[in-house]
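Exercise 3.2. Students should predict the tertiary structure of the chain below and write it as structure tokens, then compare their answer with the key that follows.

Predict this chain's 3D structure.
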Amino acid sequence: MVLSKRLSNHWLHAARIISLLTVASVLVACSATRYAYNQAPPLLNWWIDGWFDFSNEQEAKVKDSLVQLHNWHRTQMLPQWGTMLQQLADDMPNNMTPERICYWGDQMQQQIDKLAQQAIVYATPIVPTMGPRQWKQLEKKIRERNEDWQKEWMLPTLQAQLDHRYTTLFEQAEKWYGPLDKTQQQLMRSSLEQSVWNAQQQLDQVMQRQRDLQKTLRSLQGATPQASQQALQDLWARSQQPMNDNDRIYTEKLRQEMCQTIAKFHNSTNAEQRRFAQKVLLGYLEDVQALVSQR
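Answer key:
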């Protein structure tokens, strides 16, 4: 299964990374997954500092917060991911409706939301200490990230964009199901050709959220813990919702289209391919169970 990637804000995005390290279902299941998860606090600290260029005092607080968040995630979230992975593996041999695919997407998003809410608790005392140094670094990283995104996805022609999206989706699908036949490849390409996905609209949405992030962080300099936490919760809530009616219509069309496309593709797979996908999921489940037992 291939789920859409959301470009999100940055301290909260760290929460998502922990979740993605947990399932690592778009990567390769192996012992490296367990190692990466166990090393998440220092890895995330390095990543977050690249976005904000913290002072020594701030970095010490970030490190402590990440350790606490990681411990919470291992005890509270990993068992829930294990349950979800088992249930999803049980679904693999069967045909799926678009509604079932959307259900799984919603379940995973709920888990990410729980993690983000906990991350906000730990971010609350750090954000008010940020100042011009952090904002300047954030602005620089946002500019670089947007430039990289445009180079990858906003290619000169629509055909080039389509080819890149097809290659990306094809590689992900083969990680899940193994080799695809010609009919399945054509089904995938046809779905992308008919998609409402629009690179410029995707970028516009991201840039709106980036501006909201920057404005919110600047407004919280020296804020009380209560004001900081509420503002971060409001920021997260806004990041999960379209920012205007046009975006709302586009986002819902894209969501329904994705669920239909994934269901149609999954239902085109044979028993061997579904066993392959089930084995992949059970491999991730084994990783999760091993990580839970290490606490």
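Discussion points: The chain has twelve helices and no strands. The two ends are 29 Å apart (CA to CA).
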